[in-house]
């Protein structure tokens, strides 16, 4: 059946017509997959294109049908998630792919459920355990872990009182050599075995509970005083055997967790160290699993079938992606090395700069997650204020600290690096981010469509912002005086040709009359007009013309299966994380600018290239990942908006804030860019608008954008460094 059009609540344009065109266009949107972030797609009806009414555009005007094509239907599990999805389509709000609430367990796929399951589930048919991942475990951990258990077993046998733990380690040595297809159980010792009167039982006697021979370590309890041997053996175990094994399992756990795909091994080691090794040896049974023994009696503690699972990149801890969790210790290492080893006794400046730059990536993720959580749980006003305040905090923190350091040292190279980073962010978000999303999304989808009207708003703001930002530069080119540092006569003729180096337009002629009387007032005027234009764009897209996006939020659950929102981060928790991440971001940016000087001085690479690549794109990696995930879901509209919004914020918010900062804290930063920055930015914006003109794209158009971006990078790579650097 053709789904009915969802009626939005509180629409200022009045009730929507429940016409055949609406239903047809809702079907088109469902089939094409332009559904945004699907909370649980299995409840969404799949309608083939053949069932859509063919006479839609014959019954209604072209304007109605054109407007209904851009409708976007979103499904959400709860109100908080619906607010987050709606905020993704609002201009000026940070686009966030990950969920801010816990998804219902029944809506998860079987692959994701396996990621979060404990290693204590026995499968009906496990299949072969000889896989590449299991062999990798044997080569990385299995052989030496098993050898360590053998050595500990020998040590416990020597103590005599710990012989029962020796037999346990002997059994575990075989288990951890190849744990796949084996099971560790917690069993209760039969009362008949605890009585000293049954010590003379035969060696081959079986247990009815386990349907197998009695473990050897049970027979050790037939000695004179079981309680004495139990206490003495436990002391010997905790002093001689347990610490070494815990350290080994801890090393395995940390290493496997950092490798991500080996997280099952990390879970296996953590369970062994935290529970199995602390159990009395007579309660631990290790055995190979056979099909005829399913189900087993007794509690299953460990049962692992494979060591590698490539889908663990989806794994999250309290809503935080595992990559961000693993990179968080890097921030602590960076701060400790940066502020404790201030004289570079332990590491060099390039190493500290690299660590500080890499630490910005997880902090950007935490800032984005906190902003999305606060916005989803608050009203529109609070969300707009939070996004406007902290949306560009990552870039601004680095830029301001670099300008402060350059002002203190009297080095104008830092101002040029900031200009290169601003240009690199603009060019990268206009060309590389949407181009990469088109290429990756085009591999799965032959043709992708997006909302050309909403993209047109961002494109118009980009044209306006680029023109405003580079207006002082064009003004200086027209009225400034060209000054060259060194000129040579090539032809030895006074009227011949001269070869000049280090030429630039001097704005300080006649005591800076041109700059202070003409260029500087123009810079301040532009810095006031650009934020005003940004506010007008917000008012246009969010208030008066919000129908451009035409977002419909619907509940994907069947009647009687509604779920309340269980947020990962409450508003107060998200606010605390946001402030702490911002503080750590400031510290990492300070360390990066502190140790970038040797790289700028000793590197043979142009400072232009360092600014437009490393300093510009590394902080944007979380946004790039979000854009790729949206493109894979055939939601290219958000992928494009991610790049456009960042580029617009660079020109309309970040640059005016830097100009305002120079008023209160004088620096070498002036809003006059080099010719290379001007040409690269303007060409990128023109090319992007040409590609996005028809509202559809494929991987070839994305390849064009990416190739043009790499060509510009090659130009920056071979360009000489700025004069004076």
TrEMBL record:
Start and end residues of each Sodium/calcium exchanger membrane region domain: 351-470, 574-716
InterPro entries hit by this protein: CaH_exchang, NaCa_Exmemb, NCX_ion-bd_dom_sf, YccF
GO cellular component terms attached to this protein's record: endomembrane system; vacuolar membrane
Gene3D superfamilies: NCX, central ion-binding region
Domain (Inner membrane component): residue spans on this chain: 132-182
Keywords: Antiport, Calcium, Calcium transport, Ion transport, Membrane, Phosphoprotein, Transmembrane, Transmembrane helix, Transport
Gene Ontology MF terms: calcium:proton antiporter activity
Signal peptide limits: none
Record membrane topology: Multi-pass membrane protein
UniProt key word Ion transport: yes
GO biological process: intracellular calcium ion homeostasis
Location relative to the cell: Endomembrane system
Matching Pfam families: Na_Ca_ex, YccF
Transmembrane segments: 135-168, 235-265, 320-339, 351-368, 380-401, 421-443, 455-475, 522-542, 574-593, 605-625, 646-665, 671-692, 699-719
Protein name per its UniProtKB record: VNX1 protein
Organism: Spizaetus tyrannus (black hawk-eagle)
Underlying gene: Vnx1
């Amino acid at each position: 059946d053709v789904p009915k059009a969802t009626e939005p609540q509180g629409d200022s344009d009045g009730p929507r017509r429940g016409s055949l065109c609406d239903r047809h266009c809702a079907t088109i949107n469902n089939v094409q997959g332009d559904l945004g972030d699907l909370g649980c797609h299995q409840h969404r009806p799949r309608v083939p294109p053949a069932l859509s009414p063919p006479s839609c555009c014959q019954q209604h005007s072209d304007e109605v049908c054109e407007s209904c094509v851009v409708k976007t239907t979103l499904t959400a599990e709860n109100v908080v998630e619906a607010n987050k999805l709606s905020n993704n389509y609002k201009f000026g709000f940070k686009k966030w792919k990950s969920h801010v609430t816990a998804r219902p367990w029944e809506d998860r796929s079987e692959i994701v459920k396996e990621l979060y399951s404990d290693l204590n589930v026995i499968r009906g048919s496990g299949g072969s355990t000889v896989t590449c991942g299991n062999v990798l475990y044997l080569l990385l951990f299995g052989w030496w872990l098993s050898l360590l258990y053998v050595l500990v077993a020998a040590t416990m046998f020597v103590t005599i009182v710990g012989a029962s733990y020796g037999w346990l380690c002997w059994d575990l040595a075989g288990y951890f050599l190849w744990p796949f297809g084996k099971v560790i159980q917690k069993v209760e010792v039969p009362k008949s075995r605890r009585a000293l009167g049954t010590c003379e039982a035969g060696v081959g006697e079986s247990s009815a509970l386990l349907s197998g021979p009695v473990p050897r370590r049970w027979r050790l309890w037939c000695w004179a005083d079981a309680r004495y041997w139990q206490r003495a053996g436990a002391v010997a175990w905790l002093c001689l055997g347990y610490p070494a094994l815990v350290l080994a399992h801890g090393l395995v756990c940390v290493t496997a967790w950092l490798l991500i795909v080996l997280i099952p091994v990390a879970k296996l080691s953590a369970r062994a160290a935290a529970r199995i090794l602390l159990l009395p040896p007579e309660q631990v049974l290790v055995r190979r699993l056979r099909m005829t023994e399913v189900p087993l009696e007794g509690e299953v503690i460990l049962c692992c079938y494979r060591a590698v699972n490539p889908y663990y990149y989806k794994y999250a801890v309290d809503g935080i992606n595992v990559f961000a969790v693993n990179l968080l210790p890097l921030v602590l290492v960076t701060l400790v090395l940066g502020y404790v080893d201030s004289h570079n006794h332990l590491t060099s400046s390039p190493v500290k700069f690299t660590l500080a730059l890499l630490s910005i990536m997880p902090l950007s993720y935490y800032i984005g997650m906190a902003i999305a959580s606060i916005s989803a749980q608050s009203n529109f006003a609070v969300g707009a204020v939070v996004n406007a305040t902290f949306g560009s905090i990552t870039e601004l923190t680095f830029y301001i600290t670099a300008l402060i350091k350059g002002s203190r040292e009297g080095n104008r190279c830092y101002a040029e690096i900031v200009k290169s980073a601003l240009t690199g962010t603009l060019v990268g978000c206009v060309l590389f981010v949407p181009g990469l999303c088109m290429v990756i999304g085009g591999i799965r989808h032959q043709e992708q469509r997006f909302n050309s009207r909403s993209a047109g708003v961002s494109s118009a703001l980009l044209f306006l912002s680029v023109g405003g930002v580079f207006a002082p530069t064009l003004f200086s080119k027209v009225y400034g005086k060209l000054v060259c540092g060194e000129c040579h006569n090539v032809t030895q003729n006074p009227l011949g040709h001269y070869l000049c180096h280090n030429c630039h337009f001097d704005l300080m002629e006649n005591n800076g009359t041109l700059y202070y009387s003409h260029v500087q007032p123009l810079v301040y005027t532009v810095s006031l007009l650009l934020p005003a234009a940004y506010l007008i764009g917000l008012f246009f897209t969010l208030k008066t013309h919000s129908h451009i996006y035409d977002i419909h939020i619907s509940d994907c659950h069947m009647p009687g299966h509604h779920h309340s929102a269980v947020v990962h981060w409450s508003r107060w928790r998200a606010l605390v994380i946001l402030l702490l991440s911002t503080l750590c971001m400031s510290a990492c940016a300070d360390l990066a600018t502190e140790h970038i000087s040797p790289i700028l001085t000793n590197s043979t690479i142009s400072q232009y290239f360092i600014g437009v690549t490393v300093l510009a794109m590394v902080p944007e990696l979380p946004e790039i990942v979000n854009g790729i995930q949206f493109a894979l879901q055939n939601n290219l509209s958000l992928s494009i908006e991610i790049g456009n919004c960042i580029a617009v914020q660079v020109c309309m918010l970040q640059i005016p804030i830097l100009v305002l900062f120079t008023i209160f804290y004088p620096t070498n930063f002036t809003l006059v860019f080099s010719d290379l920055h001007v040409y690269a930015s303007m060409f990128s914006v023109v090319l992007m608008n040409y590609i996005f003109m028809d509202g559809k794209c494929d991987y070839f158009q994305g390849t064009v954008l990416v190739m043009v971006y790499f060509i510009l990078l090659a130009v920056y790579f071979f360009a000489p460094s700025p004069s004076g650097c």
